[in-house]
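Aim 2, interim progress: modelling of the heme C-bound target.
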Amino acid sequence: MRVALLILLGLAIGVVGTANVMSLLAQRNPMPTAIMHTMDYHMASLKQAVKAQHCDATQTARHLLRLQSTATDILPVFGIHEKNFVDFANRLQTHLQQATLANPASCAALATALRPINQTCDDCHRQYR
Ligand code: HEC
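Predicted structure of the complex, ligand included:
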């Protein structure tokens, strides 16, 4: 009898514990990774265009604008106030702004514009990811 009760108690603790872990996981903010995946999609599209040597200026402009507007979400969503993190996020903004203004029409111009952007993604990841 005692053993059966102990087993039941163990099961109950297991169920409660699992429910707690599940709700903790659900509460985890999906936004930081959503932002990163959105930027990743647009960066990958641009890199693919360069690789295929098929750089449509209208598509390029669209991807760069999406990158630029998505990157403005980094600081408010991540809520990391360390100077280096803020610097990386601002640097990304600057490079994206410059790329958008440069409005690259050729694959060569696009490749040049992507270099400092890519570098900034990598720099921040090396320290914070
Ligand atoms: C200011 C810092 C910073 C910059 C700039 C930055 N990232 Fe990130 N990135 C992070 C951090 C921090 C994580 C880890 C997020 C996590 O796991 O919650 C991350 C994670 C990622 C991930 C993995 C997401 C996952 O599934 O966990 C991808 C993909 C990514 N970044 C793409 C990019 C691209 C593309 C750029 C440049 C256009 C970029 N990031 C610029 C900080 C940055």
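The mean pLDDT is 91. The two ends are 52 Å apart (CA to CA).
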